[in-house]
DNA sequence: AGGTAATCGAGACGGTACGTCCGGTCTTAGA
DNA sequence: TCTAAGACCGGACGTACCGTCTCGATTACCT
């Protein structure tokens, strides 16, 4: 039985793969999403266009892979100091800081655009990029729930979205500054919703 | 001071303007954002491309105008039954419903993409489309604050983003269903954050 | 019986007419045929486009009028010194000189292009610009025929074309220099054909 | 020395090249020069516009190539029966016939227009299309000169233009019919100029 | 002298083609 | 077989002009 068989991954050039992902991220930072084209990526990476199309479905998939690689590099786990507020500060602050930086958030912006255009990609983004972080926060909140720091009737899926949603909203629609104070305020507000009075 | 001049708005064809905005919205609903091209809009509207470029900077601006027109048509004010929870349900439920409908949310999707690609447009979207609604909700919350239904120390800008943020996050990243129950839960969670116990 | 009546020529602005013809000739000299557009003529002349279309059928007609004006200014008659060779030199030399000058011949070039594209215009060009000169030369040749300086069996229509044809051919196809010597040689060759031995 | 490079001719699609040249000639015959557009050629040939622009500078260059191809196919040589008049009849008659046919002369008309608009193209037309024929006639005249059928002092470059010039003049300016009699008369007149009495 | 009809400058309009850019596929040569 | 390179077909881009049309504002005639 001959397999339907796309390209053979064992023969894939790791060198090209890295060059493509690097080129994509660089171009995003340097010139922005509208100038990010497959041709530009291929040229910058010193790679044929076909090599991109052979392994990715489009530029959204390339960016997703680039960020997946980066995400794997950092620790996806949550700290647990015992104090849920402290731990949430620790996770939200750097996220806000990244979104506040136009250069660093260029990839997020690009991926959001692709996500809004492509349903299949959206699911990949959710499962491969967002889920790990959301689950880590959820786990931490569950622990807090067991420690009676979070009301028992709080739906934890909604809880994590209550933390990340306002932040992304403000980022997307530029309704206000993405400062550290803002990050802390969001955490405080969310914790109030979870039944924790401010310290 | 030499005026920048540009085309003379008094000679603008209202007929063409309406045809273009209508065509843009129709096409978005029928074929989606990636297939929405200036050429298609012009063809559908029975208009020369130049007539679009003369008055708008690109398709983002066209969509923005189309939605601004539509937004002006509907009442941007909030209900005020005296009960803040009831009133928030009334505003959040239809918003969630609209986002849940692929056809109705096509324009939101398109505008979000443009917003993420174009800083100048983002500000227009914020000021002309979002602000009126956000301000209306904010006003309603301020009244609730005066009626001691919302804690006095709650920052109202953050408050409205706490309501809308999670909803848009779930819409963009498809992290869960956009049901009426969800809409109500978001309101309940936010009200808890604002210091209102569940009924 | 109401006349079909186009525009009323008595109300025509002579000022605009001259400005248009002048602008057309200037533009031809400065930028060449490909840049000669109705819009450019109108802008240069400080005239509305409609004023051009009201009085001319297109740019070919404008150029034709411009040259007709110029042609009327110069004397269309032939000299008659009694010596046909001398007289032909006198008529051919300046014609060659004009064709040799890129600036002066820009209008001829433009008109030739229009002539090749538009049959109706071609007839106008022939009758209003060429015919007078051709007829003048023909008349002079007829006189020479009577004076036995030209063979009686020479068809005079062919004779004049034998004089002008080679010149225009060389001008169009750049097969050789358009010098005064060349002009004289053409005359000599033609006269040989007409039965006149070189002096 | 950095090579100017441009596209690699070894990878050029012969299929597309032929389709483009064929389409151009067909369209010229069917619709005329003003309706001959790059877009129409591309559409008819089933080719992307870029494929035309990659290899040609514009429609003039395409037509030139199309005719060069056709010219190579026919024999560019002159007959030599020993009698120069007979041989010139043989070459001039079909040329006049072609110019007299609106369909067949469409390409000549188009090329003449381009020649008048574009100096660089004019030289190509002269060297690649006209020269071979002019040279062939010139060679034949030279042989006639050696055989004392043409006066020794006749400049052969001028001689060939004396043959072709009047014909093109009459074609361009429509000063008379392009019949076979006319063709013969031109030859007879030219031969008289060359010192050959009519038979 | 005032009314009125046509021309005028200006430029927006519906269109068509331009020449460029890029998407995604296919072909070639080399490793 | 995969790769770099890049030609290919297709199609949208944003621009330039086309020829028509709609505006006041002159302008010249005609009561």
From TrEMBL, chains A, B, C, D:
<dbReference type="GO" id="GO:0003700">
    <property type="term" value="F:DNA-binding transcription factor activity"/>
</dbReference>
<keyword id="KW-0804">Transcription</keyword>
<feature type="DNA-binding region" description="H-T-H motif">
    <location>
        <begin position="37"/>
        <end position="56"/>
    </location>
</feature>
<feature type="domain" description="HTH tetR-type">
    <location>
        <begin position="14"/>
        <end position="74"/>
    </location>
</feature>
<dbReference type="Pfam" id="PF16859">
    <property type="entry name" value="TetR_C_11"/>
</dbReference>
<dbReference type="GO" id="GO:0000976">
    <property type="term" value="F:transcription cis-regulatory region binding"/>
</dbReference>
<keyword id="KW-0238">DNA-binding</keyword>
<dbReference type="InterPro" id="IPR011075">
    <property type="entry name" value="TetR_C"/>
</dbReference>
<dbReference type="InterPro" id="IPR001647">
    <property type="entry name" value="HTH_TetR"/>
</dbReference>
<dbReference type="InterPro" id="IPR050109">
    <property type="entry name" value="HTH-type_TetR-like_transc_reg"/>
</dbReference>
<dbReference type="InterPro" id="IPR009057">
    <property type="entry name" value="Homeodomain-like_sf"/>
</dbReference>
<keyword id="KW-0805">Transcription regulation</keyword>
<protein>
    <submittedName>
        <fullName>AcrR family transcriptional regulator</fullName>
    </submittedName>
</protein>
<dbReference type="InterPro" id="IPR036271">
    <property type="entry name" value="Tet_transcr_reg_TetR-rel_C_sf"/>
</dbReference>
<dbReference type="Pfam" id="PF00440">
    <property type="entry name" value="TetR_N"/>
</dbReference>
